[in-house]
Specification:
mainly alpha; Rossmann fold; two-stranded parallel sheet; 4 helices; 2 strands; about 10% strand; globular
C-alpha cells in the first residue's frame, strides 16, 4: 500500500488476529491483564479497526488515520456493547494529508466516544 492511496484494512484478517491474540493470552496466562495495540502505517489503520472488534485497553496508531466516515460507522456499531479504547495518534504534522485524516478521526472520536484530549 502506498502512502498516495488508501485502501481499507483487510477485514478477513481481523478474525485471524483475534484468534492469535486469544491463543497467546491463554498460552502465556495473561488473562485479566490489559491488552494494548500499536501499529504503524497500514498497521495503524488496522489497530483503529481492531479496536472496534476486540476489547483493547488502548491503541496507538502511528503515521495513519482512517477516513472518518469509515471509522465512525464501525464505532457506531459498538454503541451499547463496548467502549472504544483510549487512543493516542502519532503522526508527522508536516505530512499534511495524514495530519488532516488524523484530525478528522480525533474530532469524530471526541464526538462519538468523548474523553479524548490533545496530547
Amino acid at each position: 500500500m502506498s502512502s498516495g492511496s488508501f485502501a481499507p484494512p483487510l477485514v478477513p484478517r481481523d478474525a485471524q488476529v483475534i484468534k492469535v491474540l486469544d491463543l497467546l493470552i491463554e498460552r502465556e496466562r495473561l488473562h485479566g491483564l490489559p491488552v494494548f495495540a500499536l501499529g504503524a502505517s497500514s498497521g495503524g489503520a488496522f489497530v483503529l479497526m481492531l479496536a472496534t472488534k476486540y476489547p483493547l485497553a488502548g491503541i496507538c496508531p502511528q503515521i495513519m488515520g482512517l477516513p472518518s466516515q469509515l471509522l465512525k460507522k464501525e464505532v457506531e456499531k459498538m454503541e451499547g456493547t463496548k467502549k472504544y479504547p483510549p487512543t493516542i495518534f502519532v503522526h508527522m504534522p508536516r505530512d499534511t494529508r495524514t495530519a488532516s485524516i488524523v484530525a478528522e478521526d480525533m474530532t469524530m472520536l471526541r464526538e462519538k466516544v468523548g474523553g479524548l484530549r490533545r496530547g
